[in-house]
Design goal:
The protein has helices at 27-42, 53-66, 72-94, 116-124, 147-160, 193-200, 212-225, 228-232, 273-296, 302-325, 332-335, 337-346, 348-369, and strands at residues 16-17, 24-25, 103-110, 129-132, 136-139, 166-168, 171-173, 180-188, 240-244, 260-269. It has 379 residues and is α+β, with helices and mostly antiparallel strands. It folds into two domains: 16-94, no CATH class; 103-114 and 162-369, no CATH class. A six-stranded antiparallel beta sheet has the order 4-5-3-8-10-9. The longest helix is centred in the last third of the chain and has 24 residues, at 273-296. Residues 1-14 and 202-209 have low confidence and may be disordered.
């Protein structure tokens, strides 16, 4: 469908109310909001980086729903600064000299919370989504270069009213008893020959995908940012998964093509800390990928050489803490799921110390790459 066509939403029922109110929205108003978002993003916002457009479209839809009498030009002026800022950050991260991998997410929402009107919106603005088994609906936005685009996607999805919330401590929160599955995936450059051998053999030989360093990353990220309820409610028995055929990116120069993805599947979307998880996990992966490039003796930039050395420090300290001081077994989340959840429940210091360790090295990556340490999620 052309983005300039008005969307065809079959149902005319007043089935969706404005978030935080009891006021229902007529489908015609939703149709007009989608039309405004698509026309603005192919017109006035055509200079915005393509990978920054999905959250912008959602933001425009929300603005138009709340203010249906505003013209497109007025909507443009209200969202111009936001769009330019997000696009600028995306441009900085897509620079081929920035060694951090591309990042993507998959989030699952209960079917009862994913109304048909939401499906219509996502289909009309080209955000992949699909109904899955076990009563879930998965949203799989396109990858981005900056983690803040994915973070903004999560916030706009929440603002839209899709994410089920409950009242707690004077504000609305995601119910900790009903954790939301969040998968995070990263692009892997094909200059790393070992990846290709491992991934090509993944279908016939699962053991070929077992990379101890990735297990370490999964362990520390999951202890730091997931909950025991999330672990006990997992659908998959493997926390790490490889994918072939990643989408082409602007960092795909020469032989350095991000044609594979590695996916971490034990994380969750629950609160503000998730935004921190996206940024910090990308930096940890940047260190790791640089270290493998060094091992494979492929050409590296000065920044990558520094990240590779930093990985050595991180790996030593993380292993000493998790497997030494805490005496935890490697890949605990896959081998002994309920034991891992029990550790999370009874030893809160593990979460605290894992977060501190991740943040420590994340800040050092930011210093090497001259990344801003500001918060991108505010309004």
């Amino acid at each position: 469908m052309s983005s300039m066509e008005k969307p065809n939403i079959v149902s005319k029922k007043k089935e969706w109310h404005i978030p935080d109110t009891n006021e229902f929205i007529d489908t015609d108003i939703v149709m007009n909001a989608i039309y405004s978002a698509n026309s603005l993003c192919t017109g006035r916002f055509s200079g915005i980086e393509t990978t920054a457009l999905p959250p912008l479209r959602l933001r425009i839809i929300l603005d138009k729903l709340a203010n249906p009498n505003l013209t497109n030009e007025e909507i443009y002026e209200r969202n111009k600064a936001f769009a330019e800022h997000l696009s600028k950050r995306e441009s900085e991260f897509m620079d081929p000299n920035n060694p951090l991998p591309t990042i993507g997410i998959e989030i699952e929402i209960p079917n009862e919370d994913f109304l048909p009107i939401f499906r219509s919106i996502f289909d009309q603005i080209d955000i992949p989504n699909v109904s899955e088994t076990e009563g879930k609906h998965e949203m799989n936005p396109n990858f981005s270069y900056s983690p803040w685009v994915q973070a903004r996607m999560l916030q706009e999805i929440t603002n839209l009213g899709i994410v089920p919330l409950k009242k707690g401590d004077g504000k609305k929160i995601i119910d900790p008893e009903k954790p939301l599955s969040l998968h995070i995936n990263f692009g892997i450059p094909n200059t790393i020959r070992n990846w290709e051998r491992m991934i090509e053999g993944a279908d016939s030989n699962p053991e070929a995908t077992e990379v101890p360093e990735l297990g370490l990353i999964n362990d520390i990220l999951t202890f730091a940012f997931s909950s025991s309820n999330r672990i006990k409610n997992r659908k998959t028995s493997e926390s790490i998964h490889f994918h072939k055929g990643a989408r082409e990116t602007l960092k795909d120069t020469g032989n350095n093509k991000f044609i594979y993805r590695v996916e971490f599947r034990a994380t969750e979307f629950k609160d503000y800390s998730t935004y921190r998880l996206l940024a910090e996990s990308q930096r940890i992966m940047g260190m790791f990928i640089s270290s493998v490039k060094r091992q494979e003796k492929v050409p590296m930039s000065g920044a990558e050489e520094k990240l590779a050395l930093l990985w050595d420090e991180f790996k030593k300290e993380a292993e000493a803490y998790l497997y030494g001081e805490e005496k935890l077994e490697t890949n605990l989340f896959d081998k002994y799921m309920y034991l891992a959840s029990r550790v999370m429940e009874t030893r809160p210091e593990v979460r605290k110390n894992c977060r501190a360790l991740i943040t420590k090295y994340s800040k050092r990556v930011a210093e090497i790459l001259n990344l801003d340490e500001d918060s991108e999620i505010s309004n």
